[in-house]
Amino acid sequence: MSAVVQSISSAAPEAERELTDGFNLIIDALKLNGLDTIYGVPGIPITDFGRMAQAAGIRVLSFRHEQNAGYAASIAGFLTKKPGVCLTVSAPGFLNGLTALAHATTNCFPMILISGSSEREIVDLQQGDYEEMDQLAVAKPLCKAAFRILHAQDIGIGLARAIRAAVSGRPGGVYLDLPAKLFGQVMDAEAGAKSLVKVIDAAPAQLPAPDSIQRALDVLKGAKRPLIILGKGAAYAQADDEIRQLVEKSGIPFLPMSMAKGLLPDLHPQCAGAARSTVLKDSDVVMLIGARLNWLLSHGKGKSWGEAPKQFIQIDIEPKEMDSNVEIVAPVVGDIGSCISALLAGMGDAWPAPPADWTASVAKKRDENVAKMAPRLMNNNVPMDYHGALGVLRTIIKERPDAILINEGANTLDLARGVIDMHQPRKRLDVGTWGVMGIGMGYAIAAAVETGKPVLAVEGDSAFGFSGMEVETICRYNLPICIVIFNNNGIYRGTDVNDAGADPATTVFVKDARYDRMMEAFGGVGVNATSPDELKRAVNAAMDSGKPTLINAVIDPTAGSESGRIGNLNPQSALKKK
Length: 578
Ligand code: OXT
Ligand code: ADP
Ligand code: MG
What we know:
The chain is an alpha/beta fold. Strands 3-2-4-5-7-6 form a six-stranded parallel beta sheet, sandwiched between helices.
């Protein structure tokens, strides 16, 4: 239905007809396709569009910086399997949103970045328009697809193409360029309504070839020390029951990648999360489900994978992913739900359990590691170390398993990943494939908005700084978000000194900063916590009340290590002066 009714000739009633325009057609097209939430920042030429969308019942969340709105849209896509929508102004706003679009593409999250843009004729002749930029050309190499709509009658098709490109096959980011002139273009309302497209079956099932299933089962059956690795593609697929059945029916130990934690509970008897290096090294057959053999898995080779020959089975929707780093002896290409169902059917009722010495050795290593860590998590040291603080948060997540955990930082990320067990699928959201700082507040906002669940954001003090101004957004929308800042006065540690001059070292911040006061400035709750007991009380109070809360958790500035668990990736200079 067109939202605006206009009369083009009040003097001639017989010639009266209903009109609509670009503004209304975009809104109608979004609504028709169930895209009911927009994350963005207003300004020329999209301010009125935001107002009209809000008036038409779309939830429009207005941020302080487009990058955060973009990260929100990207994780909304991951959580809902619908493209998350980010709306920005032209050139600078567009560029601010573009990092998040590239991030969505890299992480295989469906997202659409819609940006207003300047007049084509002026941009193409480079005549210096307001916020002039050839945005389509800039976006293209950084996303899965990019489209521009020039005519109101193409809005329906343009949005349909964007939705399909974002969610079908391997999901990713799509750019949609809307020049300012398009919004005001008028057309007949009936023709406009007819031009809209409700996308049917946007992400069609992709069935695996039966041969590929049989090949995978043959390899798996021959394994002496099999391992299943679950990645965030498996979490995205929302085939939770099938995946659980496959893991349990096979009896094979599973290793969850960071955002796949909780797909099966971390406390599941087959979970090998706490025996990571052992299972990577000693396994002989590895079945990857929605996980890539990229840097996070040492490219499937080298020291962490041990000496013994290894065979890989890979389940992925993207055929080009196969053999990307090492040979895949059994590629299974299809959507995870269909692939796992086919594997389950092929396994029949009597699938042999893996050799007991293998499962026992994995369980033993896991239990040893868990036991080794346990006492460290119970310490009540002041100043807090990471383990004391995380021990408290781990219990809180256990007691509130449906809360969503957002996590970024270096030590704050790596230690939280190991310490905080997850109990339900898609509850842990973090820096992802690029290890990017700045996802925190955008993710927290979208997680609260899309799921209605309480959110706990565990943030390094540096990581938080990348999106910290969005605490105002959190307060404005009164979202149930509790932010805990692990404040160790800096990046990795707060103790570095610059011996060469008066400037501080590059990795340290203002000492003993009180981030909690930022939250108070906007009417939220701020707490300074100096011990695990104080931290526990403050987080529980925040989660009970649902009030926006920021807890400044004072962490020993000497406790962290350079780059957390990935210090080995730092290049070293042989010529470095001490
Ligand atoms: O088996 P072994 O013996 O090996 O043991 C493993 C597990 O078995 C065991 N484990 C357990 N034991 C007991 N109990 C339990 N429950 C348990 N669970 C596991 O523990 C070990 C470790 O397990 P894990 O973690 O699974 O294994 P591992 O070996 O670490 O896994 C390897 C990886 C690669 C998969 C893993 O490490 C990983 O996922 N890493 C991701 C790392 C990452 O992405 N880091 C973020 C980037 S770092 C850096 O780039 C930063 N920057 C630069 C920057 C960035 N990133 N972005 C932008 C836009 N600009 C700049 C910055 C600025 S970090 C950063 C800020 C840092 O400062 P902050 O103040 O924010 O943070 P602090 O450091 O806290 O100060
Ligand atoms: P992780 O970082 O957790 O290891 P990655 O992001 O590297 O995970 O890998 C996710 C993989 O999942 C990608 O290769 C992507 O193509 C795949 N994927 C995403 N959704 C699906 C799906 N529905 N079915 C099959 N594969 C999928
Ligand atoms: Mg820090």
